Amino acid sequence: MRLGIAGGILAVVVVLLAIVAYTALFTVYQTQQALVVRFGEPVRIVTAPGLHFKVPFIDNVIYVDKRILDLENPAQEVIASDQKRLVVDAFARYKVVNPLRFYQTVNSIDGANSRLATLLNGALRRVLGEATLTEVVRDQREELMSRVRQQLDHEAQAFGISVVDVRIRRADLPEQNSQAIYQRMQTERQREAAEFRAQGSQRSQEIRARADRDVTVLVAEATSKAEQTRGEGDALRNRIFAKAFSKDPDFFSFYRTMQAYEAGLKPSDTRMLLRPDSEFFRYFANRGTKDQAQAPSATKTSPAATPSKSSAQPQSSAQPPPSAPGRSLSATPQPAQ
To answer: DSSP 3-state assignment of 257?
Structure first.
């Protein structure tokens, strides 16, 4: 009986000791830091990971994340120094460095995010309000983000928070402004393109005019030289003809007449409306009959005279020249029907 009571008491004591030991011990992980609070008052801060002790049933442990935390800020409109509206989308990274101050000021991660979002918006407006659109978008973006981080970190120290980084994810014009700017840019580009085309057209016309002038000058010079050469050739030809004519006028006349026959009497059409006794056909006349008619009269006047060799020479020179190849000079051509 006594053993049973003693065993029960011992079991109760063991259970009570286990409960006390369980409530007196707490574990801090490597990603955490702990704040021990007694009746609402902070007692100590535990940052080292491992197993730690506290007063059972009196002390409470508040865990705070020791990792780098994210702060996503919704996009907002900011007016730059050149009065351009910008839609800025930024985010921040921070961590808790003083759990006690963090607990006393914001109490939780959600409270910290809410306070930091307000501070981030204010820092963005102050810093970007002093810069132009070009500086925000292109020229000084890194410097501006660094200034925003410094201001936000300075204000977040009051909450036991250290701001690690601030980044501007996007900084664009509002939709309505973007469309107006795009249209203006398109108009400017079209104006520049039209100006370039006009300059190119003017340059092209100048080149064409210069080329046409050069062509005209070259053609005129070539024509002048050709005419000069042709004139010299004609003069030389005329001199040769004159020289040939002076040597034998009868043969020259006969040669020129043959050329006229060749040019006038074409193989395809030999019809010509001329008189048979025309000067053009003087080499077609039958002069042998006329000479024979004159011979008896010469015999009657001087029957005893015998023509000498010297007197017959002029008669032979009066005979018509030989006919051209392929043409008969003895027959008188008939007039065209």
So the answer is: helix
Residue 62 CB-density burial (10 A; 0-12 exposed, 13-18 middle, 19+ buried): middle
Q: At what angle do helices 141-156 and 109-128 cross, to 10 degrees?
A: 140
User: pTM of this prediction?
Assistant: 0.50
Q: Which amino acid is at 118?
A: T
Tell me the backbone φ, ψ of residue 61, rounded to 5 degrees.
-115, 130
**Is the CB of residue 329 less than 8 Å from the CB of residue 283?**
yes
Tell me what the mean pLDDT of segment 81-94 comes to.
88
The Cα–Cα gap between 319 and 300 comes to 23
Residues 61 and 75 both lie in one domain:
no
Number of H helices, E strands in the chain: 9, 9
Q: Domain span at residue 97?
A: 69-173
Query: Strand runs (DSSP E) across the chain, as ranges?
Result: 25-28, 32-38, 41-46, 50-53, 59-65, 69-72, 76-79, 85-96, 161-172
Looking at the fold, whether 155 and 136 belong to one and the same domain comes out as yes
Residue 298 covered by a domain: no
- Is residue 328, in this structure, part of any structural domain at all? no
Beta bridge partners of 38: 41, 59
Examine the domain organization and report whether 76 and 166 are in the same domain: yes
Domain count within the chain: 4
Q: Is residue 332 part of a domain?
A: no
Q: Is residue 134 part of a domain?
A: yes
pLDDT tens profile 30-61: 888 988 888 878 888 888 888 888 888 788 88
| Residues 206-217: tens digit of each pLDDT | 999 999 999 999
Tally of CA atoms within 13 A in the half-sphere of 171 that contains its CB: 27
Specify the 3-state DSSP secondary structure of 238: helix
69-72 and 41-46 strand pairing: unpaired
- Give the separation between CA 298 and CA 305, rounded to whole angstroms: 9
74 and 162 housed in the same domain: yes
Residue of 261, 276, 248 lying closest to 323 (CA atoms): 261
User: H or E segment at 3?
Assistant: helix 2-24
Whether residue 77 sits in one domain with residue 100: yes
